[in-house]
Design a protein that fits this description.
Layout lengths: L1 E6 L3 H12 L4 E4 L6 H4 L30 H14 L3 E3 L4 E7 L2 E6 L3 E9 L6 E2 L12 E2 L12 E5 L3 H12 L3 E5 L14 H9 L4 E3 L3 E6 L2 E6 L2 E6 L2 E4 L3 E2 L2 H6 L27 E3 L14 H4 L2 H9 L2
Parallel strand pairs: 1-2, 1-6, 2-3, 6-17, 8-15, 9-10, 9-15, 10-11
Antiparallel strand pairs: 4-5, 5-6, 7-16, 12-13, 13-14
Helix pairs in contact: 1-8, 4-5
Bound molecules: flavin-adenine dinucleotide (FAD).
InterPro entries: Bdr, FAD/NAD-bd_sf, Metab_Enz_Cyan_OpOx_G3PDH
Keywords: Oxidoreductase
Protein name: YpdA family putative bacillithiol disulfide reductase
Length: 318
């Protein structure tokens, strides 16, 4: 029987496992994809907003040649830490449900069952996009994940969204020669867009290199165009590819199947947990990292979520 099962091999799941293991407890990480699967899905060469020391786990220095690490640096770093700590991993194995109680949990996975005294849920938020729920959203030229711009040179591309991911994608696509239309549901580019990205985007819009429609609502997506309504009436915008970068949310069905209750007083439906230990209302089940914020996915990120690991490990080793 394991002392702890950690679900999710993201930066925070890895931090939890290594802190638990360092306290002499036996821990396994089960991950439905690859090691640090969410970051593998981020855009190629994406630059983190955080400086490297704020992304470090387990006290391992994160050396980078630049001020901000790239996606590739982070993949290399977290995978090296997992190797250095000899963390026990079960990859490409999805957890489906959890039964039992503290001291004798059974996690059912796509490949079998795992027994553990305690369970740490660090499943993040990156698997389920916030859908537009419009006709055509399931067409093959529509994606909720942006990777890189090069396949879109000399093509009309629509980017939907007003936050960092949409802003960065619109800028990159424009610089790679795509003809970009940015569709923003609200009246402006989100003030939360990083201070070094927002003016760049506003200036590209002002000079006409990026067409932006504000207070725009997408009503349908076609193979070569997007229908929108605007304060000036309906419009059809040409698009050979559509990036709907409207955010993501945690898997609430999974959280329910793991016995984790949402806070009824929180509009974000964040799990109920004790902030001094990260333990949920189900004794022996802990939450860590981004999943702790529910639908408020920017409440917890690597910088602050990595500290959940010490709280949980200290509580397990008491
Ligand atoms: C483009 C982008 C840039 C970002 N930049 C920064 C930054 O500069 N600084 C910062 O601090 N944060 C940043 N973030 C946020 C940060 O990446 C996330 O907060 C971070 O990944 C959270 O780590 P985590 O371990 O909680 O979750 P994740 O990294 O999402 O890991 C969760 C893991 O759980 C796995 N999983 C899910 N369900 C199951 C299941 N049923 N069974 C088994 N495994 C499962 C997933 O496959 C995944 O590997 C950024 C996010 C994005 C999208």
């Amino acid at each position: 029987m394991l002392d702890a099962l950690v679900i999710g091999a993201g930066p925070v799941g890895l931090a939890c496992a290594l802190e638990i293991q360092r306290r002499g407890l036996r821990v396994v990480i089960v991950e439905k994809g690859a090691l640090v699967n969410s970051i593998i899905g981020y855009p190629t060469n994406m630059e983190f907003f955080s400086t490297p020391e704020l992304l470090e786990i387990g006290g391992y220095p994160f050396p980078t040649s630049q001020y901000k690490p790239l996606r590739e640096d982070a993949l290399d770093y977290y995978q090296r830490v997992a190797r250095a700590e000899k963390l026990e991993l079960r990859l490409h194995e999805r957890v489906l449900s959890l039964s039992g109680e503290q001291g004798s949990f059974t996690a059912t996975t796509g490949l079998g069952e795992i027994q553990a005294r305690n369970v740490v849920v660090a499943t993040g938020f990156y698997d389920l996009p916030n859908l537009l729920n419009v006709p055509g959203e399931d067409l093959p030229h529509v994606s909720h994940y942006y990777k890189e711009p090069y396949q879109h040179a000399a093509q009309p591309v629509v980017v939907i969204g007003a936050k960092n991911s949409a802003a960065k994608a619109a800028l990159q696509l424009t610089r790679a020669g795509a003809s970009v239309t940015l569709l923003v549901r609200g009246p402006e580019i989100s003030p939360s867009v990083k201070y070094w990205i927002r003016p760049d985007l506003l200036n590209r819009i002002a000079e006409g290199r990026i067409t932006a429609h504000f207070n725009a609502c997408v009503t349908a997506i076609h193979p070569d165009a997007v229908d929108i309504t605007t304060p000036n009436g309906p419009l059809t915008v040409p698009a050979r590819f559509v990036y709907a970068l409207t955010g993501y949310h945690p898997d609430e069905t999974l959280l329910g199947a793991l016995g984790i209750e949402p806070d009824p007083n929180d509009v974000a439906r964040a799990p109920l947990f004790d902030p001094t230990t990260q333990e949920t209302t189900q004794p022996g089940v802990y939450v860590a990292g981004t999943v702790c914020g529910g639908r408020a996915t920017s409440r917890w990120f690597i910088e602050n979520g990595r500290h959940h690991a010490q709280l949980i490990a200290a509580h397990l080793a008491r």
